[in-house]
Amino acid sequence: MKICVIGIGHVGLVTSAGFAQLGHRVIGVDNDIKKIKGLMRKTVPFYEPELEKLIRENQKKGRLSFSSSIKFGVKNSEVVFICVGTPPREDGEADLSSVEKVVREVAHSLDDYRTIVEKSTVPVNTWQWIKHTVNLYNKGNTEFDVGVNPEFLREGSAVKDFLQPDRIVIGVENERAKKILLEIYKKINCPKIITNLSTAEIIKHASNSFLATKISFINSVSNLCEKVGADVVKVAQGMGYDPRIGKAFLSAGVGYGGFCFPKDLAAFIHIGEKYGYELTILKAVQKVNEEQRKILVKKVKEALWVLKDKVIGVLGLAFKPNTDDMRLAPSIYVIQMLQQEGARIKAFDPAATLEAKKILHGVKFCQDAYEAAMNSDCLVILTEWDEFKNLDLKKIKKLLKVPVIIDGRNIFDHEKMKKLGFIYKGVGKGDASIFLKK
Ligand code: UGA
């Protein structure tokens, strides 16, 4: 099929390359001309495993091209996917101005039937506004349908998530749009949930909110574990074997970040308020998440007493491993809190340094983990990159001024760290012996 994807951000670019890989002819459209020119020269604007290869392959086969013209994209395709950003406003409400602008342009460009599909994460019933706006600006009264097809791509595994998804959700109003969307995903073998447009929209918000709830839940449990001498990793294991609970998203840590969970939770809460329902549970999820970063800073203070003029080495800046994305990363909040206490920060991240430099000030960015450890009073781990798990810990110990490691992601074994002579504090691991001493 001929597909136009509007908005070449993380979601849009993976979606474009993914559709091309499924055999469709795809035009990716973005108003950022620099980005489009870069892509034409095969430069991928962000780090995502497998993506560059997929883009190059499909460009070579002539199935994937890029343009800065919505008109060109719409005229040369049968289906139009909207993947533009929906950033949060101050009050948490999603800013839909980019969606509206794009929809107007799509409406102007319609010359024959098109299925216009909303992929961006939007508040429930946005589809009604899309339909209304197309009707308003579609001077030729050209026929069209609106569809909703939320994405469930995780940064760092987005290509795999696209090509081997757990499920595909399709919201439609009629058989025609349903047939077209099913045809697009024909080659993917997974459960396909066909429903109405509002339900499809809610599925996306409810999924992200539920995952964030799981994280805040296990983080709450981890705080209690620390107090009573239990081990949250084992608690999560013991819970996770129950298929009703599941193992995933039960890693306690310094809290969730990224552009999706914080934004989507705020938007979902806002939708609730708009329709007169308070999503109390999600407000608690947000609160626990904010607390989690403060708890980590408290642990650093407990180890070093005074932070003024102390040098803290930070390992990991990206909001999670395998991405260079720094948006709303826990590292931003933790580093700023440590700086407010007068600490000096040396930091290393395998991929996110360039992005981090745009956000974090007064930080010395290091070439590797060892440089971050050198002469530091403490090492703080904020992202669980694999390369940190394989560090030469004896070397790290020699390099540190004092062997203190505060691990916000539980990447090391507590017993092993103790044996190596570290003062090591992870997340959710209480020392039962202190209670016996009491
Ligand atoms: C999330 C969802 O997982 C995707 O399904 C969804 O499509 C995407 O948002 C979106 O709405 O676009 P993403 O933000 O890429 O994907 O990242 P996740 O892998 O979900 O991680 C989010 C945060 O939760 C990270 O900061 C991670 O460190 C944290 N996390 C995750 C934990 O603290 N504990 C866990 O057990 C799991």
Automatic annotation (TrEMBL):
Q: In which pathway does it act?
A: Nucleotide-sugar biosynthesis; UDP-alpha-D-glucuronate biosynthesis; UDP-alpha-D-glucuronate from UDP-alpha-D-glucose: step 1/1
Q: Which domain of life is it from?
A: Bacteria
Q: Which UniProt keywords apply?
A: NAD, Oxidoreductase
Annotated active site: 260 (nucleophile)
Q: Which InterPro entries does this chain map to?
A: 6-PGluconate_DH-like_C_sf, NAD(P)-bd_dom_sf, UDP-Glc/GDP-Man, UDP-Glc/GDP-Man_DH_C, UDP-Glc/GDP-Man_DH_C_sf, UDP-Glc/GDP-Man_DH_dimer, UDP-Glc/GDP-Man_DH_N, UDPglc_DH_bac
Q: What Gene Ontology molecular-function terms does this entry list?
A: NAD binding; UDP-glucose 6-dehydrogenase activity
| Top class in the EC scheme | oxidoreductase
Q: Which residues form the UDP-glucose/GDP-mannose dehydrogenase C-terminal domain?
A: 313-414
| Substrates-to-products reaction catalysed | UDP-alpha-D-glucose + 2 NAD(+) + H2O = UDP-alpha-D-glucuronate + 2 NADH + 3 H(+)
| EC number(s) given by UniProt | 1.1.1.22
Residues bound to substrate: 152-155, 204, 249-253, 257, 320
Q: Give GO BP annotations, semicolon-separated.
A: polysaccharide biosynthetic process; UDP-glucuronate biosynthetic process
Binding residues for NAD(+): 30, 35, 86, 121, 155, 263, 327
Question: According to its UniProt record, what is one Pfam family this protein matches?
Answer: UDPG_MGDP_dh_C
Q: Which family does it belong to?
A: Belongs to the UDP-glucose/GDP-mannose dehydrogenase family.
- Which NCBIfam families does the record match to this protein? NDP-sugDHase
Q: What is this protein called?
A: UDP-glucose 6-dehydrogenase
